[in-house]
# Entry
Amino acid sequence: MSESRNNEEPHTWFRSERVFLVDGRWFFHTREGVDVGPYESQFEAEIEAGMLKELMREKVSGDNSLAVIREFVLDSYAMGRPLTPHFREALYQQSN
# Structure
């Protein structure tokens, strides 16, 4: 349901794109400020982003979201698909 204030035109709001391209490689951005990738295709990045989203929904309780992301990256590495996540500096300092 969409509501608007009196005398205000209704707006359509779009979420910012979480999947993006850098130097021919695809990444996705998490709410926690982590860019995960690279992937060979946009489709692959979208699928992996969905998989991580489901993992987060299942496993996150409290403040362990970075631990779930770390597990996701390590699992990818163990399956022969090494990822190079990039963290915002503030997040990196928090986890150390």
